[in-house]
Write a structure and sequence with these properties.
44% of the residues lie in helices and 16% in strands. It contains 4 helices and 6 strands. Strands 1-4-5 form a 3-stranded antiparallel sheet. The chain has a 3-stranded mixed sheet with strand order 2-6-3, with no helix packed on it. Strand 4 and strand 5 form a beta hairpin. The longest helix has 52 residues. The chain is elongated.
Length: 204
């Protein structure tokens, strides 16, 4: 018995496979966005590497400061009770050297002191902790930085604690320290001369 075949069956047997869909070509806007993201990623990577180098350089500078201070301690201990150099002078010299080295490395890392002395106090970068009368300088002039303020990459890293001038007579200078008084020297004991009668008695 022959089974009739419908035209739709014939067409399904001999029809060719449908072609696969190809991805749509990227638009100019997509290309631009991809380039922007790539550029930003590269810039962030450069900043990260630069920050790591700066941090490493700063840490190495702090190690140099530690070396200077440790050398001062060793030299003080090695001299013992008879130091070749007075201890206060030695410490002053070593501390000064450590401070200079530290400041150099801070500058290399983009950290710099504000140096406000002589200028007018600015509230956004300094905090007034004391006021002193002065007749020769304008009011609010910074006379002293009790705590140094610092910038980091031109932004405030730490505010300065300052002493400023206010109108008024200059304070009296501190009196000069009095020289140390020496202990009074006891008077020399004078030998008493013996009378002639006593000298005769001793000879007898």
């Amino acid at each position: 018995m022959t089974v009739p075949v419908s035209p739709s069956d014939h067409s399904s047997e001999h029809s060719s496979p449908e072609p696969e869909e190809t991805p749509a070509a990227s638009s100019p806007e997509q290309d631009r966005r991809i380039k922007q993201l790539t550029f930003r990623a590269q810039a962030l990577e450069k900043k990260r590497l630069a920050a790591e180098r700066t941090l490493r350089s700063l840490l190495e500078g702090l190690l140099e400061v530690d070396d200077i201070l440790a050398d001062a301690v060793r030299r003080t201990e090695a001299d013992g009770p008879n130091p070749t150099q007075p201890v206060p002078e030695l410490l002053e010299e070593q501390i000064g050297a450590a401070h200079r080295v530290l400041r150099q490395h801070l500058l290399a890392a983009g950290v710099e002191p504000m140096d406000l002395v002589g200028g007018k106090a600015v509230p956004s970068i300094s905090h007034v902790v004391a006021r002193e009368p002065r007749s020769s300088v304008p009011a609010d002039t910074v006379l002293e930085e009790r705590v140094t303020g610092f910038y980091a990459d031109h932004e405030v890293l730490r505010e300065a604690l300052v002493v400023v001038a206010v109108p008024g007579p200059d304070p009296e200078p501190d009196p000069a320290p009095e020289p140390p008084t020496k202990a009074p020297v006891p008077p020399r004991r004078q030998l008493r001369r013996l009378t002639r009668s006593r000298r005769r008695n001793r000879r007898a």
